Amino acid sequence: MTRINRRSFVHSAAALTATGSLFHNSAAGHQDHTHAESLPSLPSPTAVSLMTETANRLLAALDSQQRAKATFKFEDDERMNWHFIPKERKGLPLREMTPYQKHLASALLSAGLSQTGYIKAVTIMSLEDVLRIIENDSGERRNPEKYYFSVFGTPSEAGPWGYRVEGHHLSQNYTIVDGKVTDGPSFFGANPAEVRQGPRKGLRTLAAEDDLGFDVIQSLELPQRKIAIVEPTAYKDILSAASRKAALAGQPSGFSASQMNAKQFDALMTLMKEYARNTPGQLFKRREEQIAAAKREIHFAWSGGINQGDPHYYRVQTASFLIELDDTQDNANHIHSVWRDLNGDFGEDLLKLHYETGHQRT
């Protein structure tokens, strides 16, 4: 199987926006020497401000019945009721929106993702139509518009409030508190992992997450690999499943990054940063800071085969975050991947600080 160029996909979006423009004086037929530097600079909107604005614009466009489906109290238990399997959900699905409402919903989804992450998300949605054809489905179970939008609390830049975009193989959860935002759980899946028939043959939605994991395990020497492979048979699914608080039993297992050489550690860093690149601005910075803070207190664990096409599973575990990926179902052509913030899923860390600070002021 042809491996991806792991940098080409990440940087392709930047290439699209990298072209500059020159001002021309058409009457005189020469360039205007006005420089971009002389134009007033405008502050870039933060993730929180974009999320707040796009959420409010979507809610304003809904009628009363739609709004009742889409909105919940921030304290509602539904806020932490997440999953990635195909099932009926609470919230307002795309298929119950008008075309212009769908555009606004798309803007809300993109506010919480980088361009790379957004492309992955909408491609995951589109795979439902591939499954519809493969499974000869009526279009009811496999429907690319069965993705649900839910807003918890009242969107504001201070918060607390949050929102979720969720459906089969996609669950993006955001919490805003005191002008700060956390995301998690953040789940991306792909079935099929590689489209092997039809006009979209060759499409691999989560190619980077998968291939970069192989890069790490294959970079290890045989004695190191024996430590990293914690089970010879791949786990059937991610171990954290759809738990409300991510936790794995026992001490971290696998191969410690403290024992890796420079090349091996670079492969591990590249894998972790691929997950960070799914997020924009503030969220990207948060994940980068978590990766940097972990230093070499990181464990990489693997189960299953180590060659392309083998059923396999890996995880990256630190004190603050957990990454898991499995590709075992449907003849190892069905990926689940997740980033869990061990202290910040559903804004737990921000809410704790918010309440502690509030009590101190009182």
Question: How would you summarize this macromolecular structure in one to three sentences?
Answer:
This protein is an alpha+beta fold and 362 residues long.
Number of helices: 11
Beta fraction: 15-25%
Q: What's the main sheet like?
A: 12 strands, mixed
How many structural units, i.e. domains? 1
Helix/strand-derived category reads alpha+beta
- Give the terminus-to-terminus CA distance: 62 Å
- The chain-level mean pLDDT equals 88
Tell me, briefly, the overall form: globular
Radius of gyration: 22 Å
H/E element sequence? HEEHHEEHHEEEEHHEEHHEEEHEH
Total E-strand runs = 14
What's the helical proportion of residues? 25-40%
Report the uncertain regions: 4-36
Give a structural overview.
By secondary structure, the chain is an alpha+beta fold. It has one domain. It contains 11 helices and 14 strands. The strands form 2 sheets. Strands 3, 4, 5, 6, 7, 8, 9, 10, 11, 12, 13 and 14 form a 12-stranded mixed sheet that branches. Strands 1-2 form a two-stranded antiparallel ribbon. Helix 2 runs antiparallel to helix 4, helix 6 runs antiparallel to helix 8 and helix 8 runs antiparallel to helix 9. The longest helix is centred in the middle third of the chain and has 20 residues. The chain is globular. About 9% of the residues have low confidence.
